[in-house]
Structures are given as C-alpha cells and as structure tokens.
C-alpha cells in the first residue's frame, strides 16, 4: 500500500519505518529540512534503539523516502497518517493548531480517495474538527477520517509498534476500517486484537490509558512516601501487591514523578476535557498534584541532609532523560531538579549516556558536563541518580568513593540494594525505603 506520514518525530518516524518494513511504500514529510536531510542519509535525529537499522534497510530497498513537500508526499498515498505535535496550550488543553493546519492544507491538495488517519493524541471530538477542516475545499466522498491512537513507548518504540498489545481504530466508515485492518494485519498475526470503534471512543481510549498509567505511578509514589514514614519498604510492597494479576507488576515503580512528552500533557488535557463537559475529575486532579510534589521530593531530601544550606555545594547527576533508552528530555523531572538545585546556590556536573546534547542546549554553561559517569563525581558533595540507565546499576563503588567528597547518594529510582549501600558505607537515600546513614555505621 502507498502511505504518507506527516511529521517525522518519535511517532511518525517509527510508524513510517515499521509500515515500510512490512512491505508498504512510505513517504514521510516534515517541515524541518534538517531532519529530512539527515533521514535521507539514514541518520535518525532521535535516539531510538533498533530504529536506524530498520530505516537504513528500508531506504536501501526504496520502500521509504523523505520530503518537505506535502503535496508530493500525499499525491499517490491511499492512507495519510498525521503524527504531528499536540503540545499543551497555555491553559493545559491540547493545542490542535498543527493537526488542523495540515488538515486544511490537505483539503486543497487531494484529488482521489484517501484515508486520513490521526495518530496524534487529541481530545475527544477532534476527528470531527479534522473532517470540517478537510471539507473546506474537498468533497466528502474523497476522504474518510480515522482515529488511530498510538500506544508505543519511547525507548522500545520499534518493538511496541511491531508487536502492539492492541490496535485501536476509530471510524464510522466501513471502507476506511477495512483499509486500516489490511494495513495492520502483519502486526496482529499473533492474535493481538484490532478494536474497531467510533472515533470519539478511540480518542478517549488514548487519554484513558495514559491517565490510568500516570495514576498508577502517582499511587505508588504516595505509597512510597507513606512507607518511608511507617518504616515499610516500598520495594517489598510493590512486589507483594503486583503479583496479584488484577493489579499487575508493571508501572508500579515509585520515583521522582512521571515525565516525558506525554503523561504530563495528556493528564492535563484530559482534566480540561472533563472541565469542558462540566465534570470534576477528582482523581485526575490528585494525580497532577501528587506528581508536582513528587518532582520536588529529592530536592527536599537533599536540603534536609545538608541542613538547608546548599549554597556552594557541588552535586553530580547521573541520568537526565525522562526514562532510560531515550534522549528525550521533554518534561523530564531532571529539568525541575536542576533548576531547584541551581536556585538554591548549588553547582552541578551532569552525565547521561545519550541526552547530553539536548541538556546542553537547555542549560549551556549554567552546569558542567562529564564525558562519563565517573568524571562528574570529582569533588562532589553527593550524587543524584535521576534515570535508571543500566550502566548505573553496577558501578565501581570503590572508584566512586575515591572521587566523591562526601559518600552520599540520593537515588530517585531505587537502583541499589540497601544492603549494598550499608556494606559500602554510603549515606543513601532513596524513595519509599529507609535511609542508610553511614555516620551510624561503626
Ligand atoms: N512520543 C511518544 O512516545 C508518543 C507520542 N504520541 C503523540 O504523537 C504525537 C506526535 O508526538 P511526537 O512524535 O513525540 O512529536 P515530535 O515533536 O517528536 O514530532 C513531531 C514532528 O512533526 C513535525 N511537524 C510539525 N509541523 C509540521 C507540519 N506542518 N508538516 C509536517 N511536519 C510537521 C515536526 O517538525 C516534528 O518532526 C503527539 O500528539 C503525541 O502526544 C503518542 C504516542 C507516543
Ligand atoms: O502517549 C505516549 O506518548 C506514550 O506515553 C507513555 O510512554 P513514554 O512516555 O514513552 O514512557 P513510559 O515508559 O510510560 O514512562 C513515562 C514516565 O513514567 C515514569 N514511570 C514509569 C513506570 C513506573 O513504574 N514508574 C515511573 O515513574 C518514567 O520514569 C517516565 O518518566 C506510555 O507508556 C505509552 O503507552 C504512550 O504511548
């Protein structure tokens, strides 16, 4: 099938590449010419494991190409995916300007039947708005609009796309649903379902899924805070509760608050949708509040340990991306933590395996940068762990102690066992577990 994908970000590029991988002919279009030029050479502008290999193979086989010319890209396509940004507007609602602008542009370009698929995360009712924008210059029998929310996670995006737990297709058109079914058939061969539903329900499903996951995390963050006060260990509590299949083991890890380009904006947007329909979604409001507080928690722990005087203190930071296996720092908790520490007068040296370039663009010479995880430890009054990259899990603790001024670790991701920290004589504070205090060790 001939496909066009508008927007070659995290979602668009993975979508285009994976559809090319299953034999389709894909044209990806973006307004960012730097991206297009890099992609034509097989270089991915984002860090996403497995993507570049797949991309290079499909470029070589001439199944995927890149352009900044929307008209050219959609000319022969039967299906046009919109994978455009839907960032938070000033009031927190999803800003639809990118999606609706492209829909209007398409309205003047289409001359044969197309399925216009919205893959961006958009509020309930957006398909109708896209239909209205397309209808400005286009006859209704020349297109159908479909909602096809995307559930991939960054860092494992290729795997998630190729083996989705489910595919959701929202449409009232039999013709468009049939085309979508054909397109996705290679990805659901193992019996994972495609759910065909109306567009409004599909749009709502996406927000429901993200908000529910955010709620699960916020619940565990609050549980961790209570465990700390009550002398329980949240790691045991997590394992104990998660083995009940009704609860599930995943997404129960407490930490420094959820971040990324989606949970924060999507919970906000759903809360505003609720307001728009005159519904007070109390749980969602709590999720937002808990996450805001959780992002500050590690800074509070540090302030406490250093008796509220961070002026002149120097800290090392390991991990800056909002989660491992990505270079994405959009809404990463590390951003708030860096600002809070700088604001309190501390100086910082930071390291992340892949997000350094993005962090440097944001903070330039306000902070120091290390070439590796050990370099940043030199003369530091403490180490903060903000992203649970694998390479931080089993470091050379003796080397760390030779470099650090104070043997203090503030771990926002519960990476180390308490026993190990006791054995190594570190002052160690984590989330929802007792403090290991080296001063109390003989
Ligand atoms: N990042 C993720 O893991 C997921 C994101 N989503 C949703 O997918 C949508 C896209 O997200 P990302 O891929 O992360 O965004 P992104 O910001 O990485 O990519 C968007 C791309 O669209 C391009 N663009 C903007 N205006 C354009 C135009 N007029 N014509 C052509 N290209 C244009 C930008 O240059 C950029 O390359 C959002 O609604 C997001 O909520 C859904 C599931 C997962
Ligand atoms: O709509 C989206 O963009 C995507 O948002 C999330 O994916 P992603 O943001 O890539 O990352 P997650 O793995 O969900 O992590 C989000 C945040 O929650 C945090 N988290 C996750 C799991 C957990 O147990 N605890 C926890 O604090 C992570 O550290 C991270 O900051 C969803 O998992 C995807 O299904 C969805 O498609």
TrEMBL record:
Binding site for NAD(+): 30, 35, 86, 121, 154, 265, 330
GO molecular function: NAD binding; UDP-glucose 6-dehydrogenase activity
Domain named UDP-glucose/GDP-mannose dehydrogenase C-terminal: residues: 316-418
SMART domains membership: UDPG_MGDP_dh_C
Catalytic residues identified in the record: 262 (nucleophile)
Assigned EC number: 1.1.1.22
Signal peptide span: none
Keywords: NAD, Oxidoreductase
InterPro entries xrefs: 6-PGluconate_DH-like_C_sf, NAD(P)-bd_dom_sf, UDP-Glc/GDP-Man, UDP-Glc/GDP-Man_DH_C, UDP-Glc/GDP-Man_DH_C_sf, UDP-Glc/GDP-Man_DH_dimer, UDP-Glc/GDP-Man_DH_N, UDPglc_DH_bac
This protein's record includes keyword Protein transport: no
Gene3D superfamilies xref list: Cytochrome c1, transmembrane anchor, C-terminal (1.20.5.100), NAD(P)-binding Rossmann-like Domain (3.40.50.720)
Catalytic activity: UDP-alpha-D-glucose + 2 NAD(+) + H2O = UDP-alpha-D-glucuronate + 2 NADH + 3 H(+)
Residues the entry annotates as binding substrate: 151-154, 206, 251-255, 259, 323
Listed pathway(s): Nucleotide-sugar biosynthesis; UDP-alpha-D-glucuronate biosynthesis; UDP-alpha-D-glucuronate from UDP-alpha-D-glucose: step 1/1
GO biological process, one term: polysaccharide biosynthetic process
Pfam family, one: UDPG_MGDP_dh_N
Listed PANTHER family: UDP-GLUCOSE 6-DEHYDROGENASE TUAD (PTHR43750:SF3)
Entry similarity comment: Belongs to the UDP-glucose/GDP-mannose dehydrogenase family.
Name of the protein in question: UDP-glucose 6-dehydrogenase
Annotated organism of origin: Niabella soli DSM 19437
